[in-house]
Specification:
Distance between the termini: 40 Å
Order of helices and strands: EEEEEEEEEEE
Largest sheet: 7 strands, mixed
Shape: globular
Strand content: over 45%
């Protein structure tokens, strides 16, 4: 099973940028759905973005479209989440998730957390106004 380790969390002022990284312990170069989720106290876990490795197709939550970018470094099995124009409501624990998948052409990964089988421990992101 793939082990996931997140890094890059911290505190940033609103409007600033931050990049999170998720290092996978084994090969995720192709046919993996890799995703970022976030959860704030008292709220449900929310899908932020995902990427289907190998093909590079992505999906974003409406709340982050145009501000966040997910990328996959296939050489190092790392998924990055670059967050620009941060807002206080982006404050949350961010989790990386993965699942091996065979998607037909044109299909994309889901932002439903129940689909994913491997999870990291999370990294805290705090945005101050």
């Amino acid at each position: 099973q793939v082990q996931l380790v997140e890094s890059g969390g911290g505190s940033v002022q609103a409007g600033g940028s931050l990049t999170l990284s998720c290092k996978a312990s084994s090969d995720t170069k192709t046919r993996f759905c890799m995703a970022w989720f976030r959860q704030s106290p008292g709220k449900e876990r929310e899908g932020v973005a995902n990427i289907y490795t190998g093909r590079g197709s992505t999906v974003y939550a409406d709340s982050v479209k145009g501000r966040f970018t997910i990328t996959h470094d296939s050489a190092n099995d790392i998924v990055h989440l670059t967050m620009n124009n941060r807002k206080p409501e982006d404050t949350a624990m961010y989790y990386c998730a993965a699942r091996g998948a065979w998607l037909t052409y044109g299909s994309t990964c889901t932002l439903d957390s129940s689909y994913y089988t491997q999870w990291g421990q999370g990294t805290q992101v705090t945005v101050s106004s």
